[in-house]
Amino acid sequence: RSWLEANGWNVPVIVDDSGSTVATAFGLTAYPYWVFVDDQGNVMGRITGGVGENLPLLFERIAADGTS
């Protein structure tokens, strides 16, 4: 959480337990793993690997078709 805040990411963060309950529920396949959830709790997109410069494109794709 501190790294995210230090880099301007002021979004909610989930910390998993030792049994990887959250990772399993979201379908984690590898690290890093990103899950984008809307304000209603719906999964709008998932991506494995670094997103870097592609993050704005991913957001555009989610906004356009509702999924990724």
Mind sketching the topology for me?
Elements: H1 2-6, H2 21-26, E1 33-37, E2 43-48, H3 55-65
Antiparallel strand pairs: 1-2
Written account of the structure:
The protein has 68 residues and is of the alpha+beta class. The protein contains 3 helices and 2 strands, in the order H-H-E-E-H. It has a two-stranded antiparallel sheet. Strand 1 (33-37) and strand 2 form a beta hairpin. The longest helix has 11 residues, at 55-65. The protein is globular, with a radius of gyration of 13 Å. The two termini are 25 Å apart. The model has no long low-confidence stretch (mean pLDDT 81).
Quickly count the helices: 3
Indicate the proportion of strand residues: 15-25%
Apparent shape: globular
Biggest sheet statistics? 2 strands, antiparallel
Structure summary, number of beta strands: 2
Secondary-structure element sequence? HHEEH
What strand line-up does the widest sheet have?
A: 1-2
Helix/strand/pairing class, anyone? alpha+beta
Q: On the 0-100 scale, what is the average pLDDT?
A: 81
Q: What is the percent of helical residues?
A: 25-40%
Ranges where pLDDT stays below 50 over 5 or more residues in a row are: none
N- and C-termini, Cα separation:
25 Å
Report Rg: 13 Å
